[in-house]
Write a structure and sequence with these properties.
Shape: globular
Structural class: alpha+beta
Number of helices: 3
Oligomer: single chain
Helix content: 25-40%
Number of domains: 1
Distance between the termini: 42 Å
Length: 144
């Protein structure tokens, strides 16, 4: 397979990557193929303690192990996570682009879309799991 992170392309540019690239990178980290076993372990530990947890991770119970990385610019949002759910491990990458909503609040249309899709994926893998996000939990975050 030939691919690279941060390559310059017609669709992105230097420093740009695709959701598929990020899924593959997360899979390589989980499978200890993104470097040494020690470095992959360290990457997962760092990704498991992210401060920003208001998108994909907000749709996963806090008792479930997950590792994530989010990103944002005025007109786009992105989030990627590997989730060790009771129904099976999954890697999810969601990107938005060309948003009209450039606000930096939790009700930003891109963040809302990411949460909705993440909730659907959680429900797909865990249809009988009773957990739901607590009402008002996003209001406790900075900017909420």
């Amino acid at each position: 397979m030939s691919w690279g992170f941060g390559r310059s392309s017609r669709s992105g540019g230097l420093g740009m990557t695709t959701p598929n690239d990020m899924v593959r990178l997360f899979e390589m980290i989980v499978d200890n193929k993104a470097g040494s076993s020690a470095s992959c372990d360290r990457m997962l530990r760092i990704l498991s303690h992210q401060y920003w947890d208001d998108c994909i991770l907000s749709q996963v119970p806090p008792s479930v192990h997950a590792a994530a990385k989010s990103g944002a610019l005025d007109h786009c949002r992105s989030d990627i996570a590997v989730v060790d759910s009771p129904g099976g491990q999954y890697v999810l990458a969601i990107y938005t682009k060309e948003q009209k909503d450039t606000s930096w609040v939790h009700a930003n249309e891109g963040d809302v879309a990411i949460r909705k899709l993440a909730r659907m994926v959680w429900g797909h893998y865990n249809p009988n799991h009773p957990w739901r996000p607590v009402e008002g939990s996003l209001n406790l975050l900075p900017g909420g």
